[in-house]
Every structure is written in C-alpha cells, then in structure tokens.
Amino acid sequence: MLWLLVVACTLAGFAGCGGGDEGGTASNAGSGGGKNDSGTGGDATGGGLNIDGAATELKVEPATATLSVTAKGAPQSQAFKALVSGSQVSATWTLASYDIANIDAQGMASSTGITGGKVQVIATYGGKTATAMLTIDVKLSEDVDPNLDAANKAALGGTPGADPGPTASKFLYPYDQTVMPKGLLSPLVMVSAGSVAPVGAKVKLTAPLFTWEGYYKVAAPATPRFKLPQDVWNAALATAAGGKLSIEVTKAANGQAYGPYTHQIVAAPGSLKGAVYYMTYEAPNTGLWAVRPGNTDAPKQIKKGCVVCHSVAAYGGMLSTGAEVNVQSAESGVYQIDLAGNATQISQSPPGLGGDTRGLSFGTWAPNGKYVMRSQNDFWGGPNQLAWKVDVAGKKLDPATVVGLGAGVSAYLPAISHDGKRYAFTQGNGEASPPGTVSRSIQVMDLNINESAGANGTLTFTNRQVVLDNGASGKITKYTTFLPDSNFLVLQEGATANPGFGLMLPTWDASSTSGGSDGRLHLIDIANKGHVELANANQGNVPNDAQHNYEPFALPVPAGGYYWVVFTSTREYGNVYQGGQVRKQLWVAAITPGGSGDPSHPAFYLPNQTESRNERGFWALDPCKPLEASCETGDECCEGFCVNKDPNDANSPKVCGNKSGCSQVGDKCVLDSDCCASANTKCLGGYCTQKAPQ
Q: Helix or strand or coil: residue 154?
C-alpha cells in the first residue's frame, strides 16, 4: 500500500492583534510578543487530512496540561504528541507566545521562568494545525531574610490572630486599588506597627495562577517595610496583567502571628513610555534629571546647578530651560536630547525678554519640537506670546509669526495639546476686558501651525473659549496639561497661593517658604465643560494629603488602556516620609478613558527618582526612532508603526516600518477600526491600546 507522502510545513506563528508590550491578562499572560494565545484547549482539530482516502483528524494530546512551578530556576516540562487516527506523527511544534514557555522540535514544552498564565500549543502537520492549552501555575515560597527566628516563622505559617491592643496595624503603601504598570522597580510594601510592633512578617502576593510567600525579619519594628524581590514583582504583574493582584502582610512577635492586612492593586497590561524630566533645588542633586518610569534604571542628571523651570516637547528630542539670573544664564535656552538622554545646547534664550528674565523657563513647545513659545512679558506668561522655530542644524532660534495672541490675550502657563491643535491657559493679568476671571479660569483656543507661511512659519490661534471659571472667590487654576485625547485637560486648583507671580507659584514647600499654596488635581471635559476633582488620585493616608498635589503633566500616549499623569506631591509616603518629613516627590496616577464620575485611580510613588525634594515632572516620549530601528511598539517610531522585520515571520525582530495591514497595540490610528480586530482594543489619543480593565 502506498501512503500519500505528507510533508510537514513550518508554522511561522499566528500574527496576533494584541501586539506590543501591553498583551496578557490574568488568564492569558505573556502574550506581549504580537502572538495570539487566545485559542482554546480540548480536541482542537486541523480536520480533513486525507490518508489512503480516509478522512482523519489531527489532534494534540494531552489537550490540556498544567505545569506547577514551585521553585525559581527549576523549569517544569510536559510532552505533547500529535496524532492522526490514533498514530503519532512528526509534527512541527510552536507556541502562540514564548513569554512564559518554550517548546522543542519533539513537542516537549517547558516553563521558562516564574510567570504564570496560559499559552496555546500548536502542532502543524500536512498543512493542517491542531492546538492544546498549556497552563503554568506558580506557587513559590522563600526566606527573603534567612535570619527570621524559627518561632516567629512557624507562627507565620499557621493561623494568625486578631491584632491585639487599641491600635491595629494598617496598610500604608501601596494604596488599595492603585493601578500599577509593568516595568516599575518593585515597591516598598509598608504597614504601620500597631500595638504590637512586628519582628517577623510574611508578605503574600496572589493572582490567578500565581502565589508567592516571602518571609522577612523586620529590621525596624516601628516602621515595617518590605522590599519585594524584583523578579517576583515582575512575574506577579505579568501574570495578573489586566486583573487584580492581592498583597497581604501578616506580622509576628513573640511566637504569635497577627493579621493579615490586605490590599489589592490593578495590574495594567502595559508599560509606561518615555522619560519624566524633573528638577530639584536640593544639594547635592541640584539640577535637572530624567527618570524612566517604564524600567528600573537609575535617574540621570541632565544639567547641574540652578538650570530649572524646564519644558520638553511631547514627542521627545527638544528641551528648553531657564537658569538663575547672572549665575548660569548662558545655559538657559534650547537643548536637543538624544536617545541616550544626553542634552546638547542648540541655542541660548532669545534676547529682549522682559519680566523675570530667566530665559526660556516654562517654554511652551509644539509637540513635534519644531517651535517653542514664551510671553514677552514674563516666563510665567501674560500678553504678547512669541514663537521661535528651532533650527537644529544652524544652532539658532528664528522668530516665527504669531497670529491671535497679541496684547489682547494674556496666557499664564500655557500648554499645547499632543496633536498640536489646541492651546490651553490660565487667564492672566494685563487684558482690558478679560473673558474669564484672572488666575481662576481656564481657556482654550484652536491652533493651526503652518510651517510654510511666512519666513519661519505661522502659528494661528482662534476660537477662544472659557471652559472653566471659578469666579473671583473661587479656586486658583494653573498648570493645565492635555491628556492624549485633546478633549480633556488635567490641572491644579487651590484655595490659597503666594501673592507673587500672578498666584502661579506651583507648590506648597514643606518648610512653607513658598507661601502655602494648596493644590488638588481636577479634570475638564472641554466638549461639555464638565469639571470633576480627581479625588482618587489626590487621596493619601491622611486627610491633609488630598490638598498637596501639584504640577500635573500627562504621558503623551496611552499605555495599558489608561492615560497617565505624573505630579508633584508633598503627601506622606508610607512610613518613609511622614509628618514633618514629607517632601516634594513625584507620584503617578492612572486615568480611565471615558470613565464616568471621577475617572482617576490612587497614585503610586515613582520609585526610581532621587531621594531629594523633586518637582515639575515634565513627561515626554523619547526621540522617535527612524525606519529599521529596533522597537517594541509603534509609539517609539517616527512613522508610528512597529512591524516584524520579516513580514512572513511573526517571531522575527520588530523594527520601525511602514504600516502593513491593521494597526497593532502602540501603532498610530485614527479610528477604532484601524486597530487589529480585538474586543479589548481601541484607538485612544491617536494610538491603538487595550481597553482599561473594568
């Protein structure tokens, strides 16, 4: 009998629509490589193989399998078989994603780390495919501090009792229901000591398909703090992505355990982008710094000394800064930032600027970095806004034409939307008949930038409208920032302020040297002039924290289905900075697009900033990458698209390229329909992203 020779073909992999680093859910973790692991297990068939005229099916056995990972560095394996009519055949084996497992040519699948989740196993034979489902369940326990005494460890392994005494321990950090993205340095988990200060503790992280228990000796019983191992934190967030991660602390003293104390966070299915440029006046760190919220790198000092009050073009590459008058004034001006984060001065500040002459402090940038603006009157703002086109090659600033922002418009602390089409500001002094209350109203204008009109381009401002007016006795408005959707603004509002600088001085200094300006974050919906306090983002551990939130700046693109805002706060940070030790530090909060009521979430402390007093965290993307440069998502690329280098191989490296087919997560888009078909994907702020977990 002659058998039909069936040749196994190689499956390059299923090109998924999740794409980018924002893939993965609590039941489908690790799908971030642009591969589709959403198939189901069971007796999936390739169907229709015809051998000797008999219809047969291609099947994978087992149809489902679970690997239990109970130790780091100890991968577990499962053999899969491809069968045709009950007989094993030599199939080609692939996985829909390689983030949590590998598979060899013989069908042996193995876990590759400590991230839990599910992944589709794919067998290909005779041009047909069949699938199975591999589940990786992680259950780990370790002694983070091996010096914990035996009696307390034994108690922590048993059933804890209620916290005795009048004061029970309580969770201090992270806040309950905080949304936290992937890529962060692992947080300090902090609880209060309570009536019984702990000498030992157990921290437990729990998500579907992931459990970790870590045992600690408490170094400072009065201020219990627990640093989570970075590899454990990364795995926990990746496993829980799109769902909840429970953090539980149980304490022990004198051989008795108490608790547990539990919070939940939301694990965003994505990483943050770009860099936050912040300043500090505190020696020895005085100067301008950049920190990357999307990874664990240490912050980098961009400029030393009193070179501060900076602004950065939203899509990276250009920075302007002021400088202390007669001290470092030559360093005020425009700088170009490279991909390594180095800043090279292009030009000093233009001459003839009045008011407090600290050059291009608080410069207003077009998002592409081609134009920078400042009021002729004062760097805080006012009438007669001027614009300059940045000539990088010629290392100079050329005056551009401004239409619609003469002496009749006084704009304090203006901002341009990330699409370059809107301009928002606080109503300033200097107008004969201002349409809004000075220092207490927000206005918006349409903007058209025509680079061809006039010698160096023309910026035209029209359609002035008041979108918020708190009235003469109302709250002071300042520091507007556009979310990626230019229909929404986030701003700082406060009841008190220093009388100087048009009431625009930003923050309450911990020593009260800045005049006691309070601040709460609010959101404005420009289309219907809706106005709501971002109370979830403002809240802290003590009531006073809610009025110490300042200088919001938004990430120009969505990530993990959320908008993100970094802001300065003098709130308490767990038991690290409390009471009189509070200081200006950077915090980050997620905002759910389209959410009703207060769309914000509790904030998290930006963990890899310097331990100095830090403020004005201006958030911008890195300079965009050219065609053929390596990338993870399209928002890194000048053309807006990150594609597989080999279009026929979904596992090939990703590079910046031109659009091919639908837009993956992180790629440019105009409509939801531009994004690859997925129930969890939509177009937000001009980029495809996953919908925020509900």
A: helix
